[in-house]
Amino acid sequence: MVSHLRQRPSSVRMIDEPLKPDLVLVLTYLVISAIGLLMVYSATAPRLEARGLDPAAELRSQAIWVVLGFIVFAVASTINLVELKGFTGPIYIGAVFLLVLVFPLGESDGIAQRWIDLGRIQFQPSEFAKIAVILMIASVLSAASTPLKWHVVARVIAVVGVPIALIFFQPDLGTSLVFAFVTLAMLFVGGATMRQLGFLFVATVIATVGVFQLDVIEDYQVTRLTAFLDAESQSLDVVYNQVQSEIAIGSGGLFGKGLFEGTQTNLQFVPVQSSDFIFTAVGEQFGFIGSVIVIGLFGLMLFRLLMIASRARSRFAFLVTSGIAAMIGFHVFVNIGMTIRIMPVTGLPLPFMSAGGTVFVALSAALGLAHSAWIRRNSPVGSD
Asked: Each residue of 54-82: pLDDT tens digit?
C-alpha cells in the first residue's frame, strides 16, 4: 500500500525542463497495434476472399481506428491530470448517463444489448465508462488520508456499484469483472487495510454465490463460466471456441506455420478470431516464440505503466496510472488465458490487437492519460 509519494524539490531546471515522451511506451503501443493490424488481416482476408469480397476491407476499417486511436492517445498525453481532476464528477455522470441510454436506444445482437448505433459505427459506452470510473475512484482516494477509513471505501464501492449494475444487466459479465478487479487494485495501492480488502473479498464471494442461487445470471453465462473447468462433460457447441483455439495455438509449434499459412486461421475454424480470439492467429502463425514476444511486449507496457505510477508527481496521477495498468493487465491475462483455456470465455478483447473501434480508442485514451503523467513527472507538485 502507498500512503504517500516521494516528493522532489521544485527548481527552475524542473520547470524549464522540456516535456519528454516515454519512447518505450509509445513504441510498444505502436508495435502491438501494428501486429494487431497484421493479425486482423490474416484472420479476415481468407474469409472475405472466399466470399468474393475485398480481402483488405476489415484491415482498412481497423486501420482507420488505429490512426484515430493514436490521435486520441497523443491528445490525451497533453492533458494535465491535476486540471482533469476537477472534471471527474461530470465525466462520471456522463458515462453513467450513456450506460443508461443503452437500454432504450442500444442495439441488440439477440443476447446482449451493449451498443448505441451511430449510423455507420456502433459506440460501446462501457469502454469509456472504465476510464470514467478510474478517474472517479482516483479522485475519491486522492482526497483521503491513509490508511483509508471505512466511509471512503464505502464511497468507492458506491462509485463503482452503479456502472457495474448497469453493465451487468446489459448483460456484460466480462466488463463487470474488469470494474471489480480495477476497484480492488486501486483500493490496495490507495491505502486500504488488509481487513477492508478481506471484507470486500468475502462480500464479493457471498454476492457471487447469491447471484448464482437467485438465477440472476443467464444459463449461457453460467455455462461460459464453468465450461472451461470440465470441457469433457460439456457438449461440443459449448466448448467449440476454446477447443478450436487450443488446436490453433498448439499446431503452431515452436516457430509457427508462417504468416497466412495457418490452416485453422485460413479455414476459419476459430470463431470471432479477429476480435476475442485474435491471439490464436499469433500462436498458429508465429508459434510459441511469436506468442512469447507478444506477451513480452504487453509485459513491457505494464512495466512502463508501473514505472510511470512510481514517478507520478501527484497522488491522483499515481492512482489513475495504477488503475489503467490494472485494467490493461486484466484484459491481457483474461483474454490470453481464455484462448489457452485457463480462463472462461468472457468476451474481453486483447488490448490494441483485437478488432474493434470503441475499445481501441478508449484504451488509447487511457494509455494517453497515463503517458501524460510521465511527461509531467518533473513538473512542480500541484502543476502536473
From this structure: 999 999 999 999 999 999 999 999 999 98
Cell digits of residue 65: 481506428
Q: Flag whether 364 is in a domain.
A: yes
Total domains in the fold of the chain: 1
**Which residue, among 362, 359, 381, 384, has the nearest Cα to 372 in the 3D structure?**
384
Residue 146 lies in a domain: no
Strands 106-108 and 122-123: unpaired
Is 166 in contact with 299 (CB distance < 8 Å)?
Answer: no
Enter the pTM of the model.
Answer: 0.89
Instruction: Please check whether residue 269 is in contact with residue 244, taking contact to mean a CB–CB distance below 8 angstroms.
Output: yes
pLDDT tens-digit readout, 145-160: 989 999 999 999 999 9
Environment class of 55 (CB within 10 Å of its CB; exposed 0-12, middle 13-18, buried 19+): middle
Collect all residues with Cβ–Cβ distance below 8 Å to 150 and sequence separation of at least 6: 196
Task: Supply 150's cell numbers.
Answer: 471505512
Which residue range(s) make up the domain with 70?
20-128+225-375
Helix (H) or strand (E) holding 116: strand 113-117
CB atoms within 10 A of CB 97: 10
- Note whether residue 5 is domain-resident: no
Q: Under a CB-based contact definition with an 8 Å cutoff, are residues 283 and 39 in contact?
A: no
How far, in Å, CA of 127 to CA of 131, rounded?
Answer: 7
